[in-house]
Design a protein that fits this description.
It is built from 22 helices and no strands. With 437 residues, the protein is an all-alpha fold. Helix 4 packs parallel to helix 14. The two termini are 41 Å apart.
Length: 437
């Protein structure tokens, strides 16, 4: 049954990826893939799908319970920024600062903004809700291929600020800190060096990808309807200072009140109320709220569905043999720890989900070997960052908001997110082998 059960996980995962590629909704594809896993593992159907514990539905409900407010308020705030023209004002100011002669500098600016927002504690899903409407007019003005937007947003928002840089308030860092009793600055040398290496790679990759796109004479191909037409910069909109105020308040509250539980929710609510007041003459309040709510429902269900599938798949009894095989990998123990965490990230398509499983299933064995808890913390965090696969909920949300297909986005997204983490793992193993970590 173990071999058959593992085959079921592979078949279910393949079915999920194929369904996504063909354009089926994750809300339907994920439970169907879970049914395949249940069938191959000989598990009771009703209990495994709808039971109160360790079922597909309990996994989905747990994710919704923890994350729905962030998705809801993040989407509404982004809609206020978009429909009022505030994102357009911020983008225009950004372009005036970087100049109009260098598309590369525009990409770097987006990269920096994504980095600042995520290092400021803003959830990466909220960041894409905010940055996509901000990036659209920039790409239109510079006539840059819209597919390149993936690199600065994924690179700046979901790599080094999420898993590497010491002191990051990201959920990925906090989960491990709470579980292992380690500080957010765990393994500072490893975190600092891997962050520098990740930034260097991403800046180079951005430059190379842009140059290749320009050589191919690729132009902006975004959705004109979502841009408001070619005269978008002529529309009436709030000034830059007024436009940026809700984002400044959001960041300030998160940084100043980081000790408050669920501060991101309170900060988002404050930013929404401020937006409703400041942008009232440029929008219809009811339309903005309704559209933001609709966007959030699609996003949270898509993300939760994939995480529920992954959590269920790695929890079936047959998967225990995989854990044992990983633990027996010879050589530097950080290699097997990283490999194991990456396997979990690939199946669950969730870095936080992979961390949660790894810290329970892998960490105790490696700590028993005498490994540093801080280095184990950083190894799991960096390895879990390799969670971007076709069934990844973050990618699905991004594609939906940016109106990109999986074929248009996946390769650049994979390189932007995976390669910096692979580099980070190599650096960590080298430092650990030489006694510096």
């Amino acid at each position: 049954m173990t071999a058959l059960g593992l085959i079921g996980i592979v078949v279910g995962l393949a079915l999920l990826v194929y369904a996504i590629y063909k354009g089926y909704s994750l809300v339907i594809a994920a439970p169907v893939a879970t049914m395949v896993v249940i069938l191959f593992n000989g598990m009771p159907f009703i209990g495994s799908m709808f039971g109160p514990e360790k079922s597909y539905m309990s996994g989905l409900a747990s994710f919704m319970l923890s994350n729905f407010p962030v998705f809801l308020f993040g989407a509404i705030l982004a809609k206020y920024m978009d429909k009022s023209g505030a994102a357009l004002s911020i983008a225009e100011k950004l372009m005036s600062l970087v100049g109009t002669s260098s598309p590369y500098r525009a990409l770097v600016s987006l990269f920096v903004i994504a980095s600042v927002l995520t290092f400021g504690g803003i959830n990466v899903f909220v960041v894409i809700f905010i940055l996509i409407p901000m990036a659209l007019p920039i790409f239109k003005r510079y006539n840059i291929s819209w597919g390149l937007v993936i690199i600065p947003i994924f690179g700046g928002g979901a790599t080094y600020t999420m898993t590497m840089i010491p002191g990051s308030p990201s959920l990925h860092n906090v989960v491990l800190s709470n579980a292992l009793g380690t500080p957010l600055t765990a393994a500072p040398l490893v975190g600092a060096l891997t962050s520098v290496a990740a930034v260097a790679f991403l800046l180079i990759y951005m430059k190379v990808a842009l140059a290749r796109s320009l050589r191919k004479n690729e132009k902006f191909e975004g959705d004109e309807g979502s841009m408001g037409g070619t005269d978008m910069f002529a529309r009436e909109r709030p000034s830059f200072l007024v436009s940026i105020l809700p984002i400044v308040v959001l960041l300030a509250l998160i940084l100043a009140l980081s000790f408050v539980s669920q501060i991101i929710i309170y900060a988002l609510l404050a930013a929404i109320v401020l937006s409703a007041v400041l942008f009232r003459r440029y929008i219809k309040q009811k339309d903005v709220i309704n559209q933001g709510t609709a966007d959030s429902l699609t996003s949270v269900l898509a993300t939760g569905s994939t995480i529920a599938f992954g959590s269920f798949a790695v929890g079936v009894p047959a998967f225990s043999s995989v854990f044992h095989a990983i633990l027996s990998i010879p050589g530097n123990p950080y290699i097997s720890l990283s490999v194991g965490t990456m396997v979990l990230a690939g199946i669950s398509a969730s870095s936080v989900g992979a961390e949660g499983i790894a810290v329970k299933s892998f960490a105790p064995a490696y700590l028993h070997l005498g490994l540093s808890p801080e280095t184990v913390h950083r190894a799991i965090a960096i390895s879990a960052g390799t969670s971007l696969f076709p069934h990844n909920g973050f990618l699905a949300v991004f594609n939906g908001l940016a109106r990109l297909t999986l074929r248009q986005s996946f390769v650049r997204a994979f390189i932007s997110l995976h390669v910096p983490h692979y580099i980070g793992i190599v650096i960590l193993v080298i430092l650990a082998s030489t006694g510096l970590a």
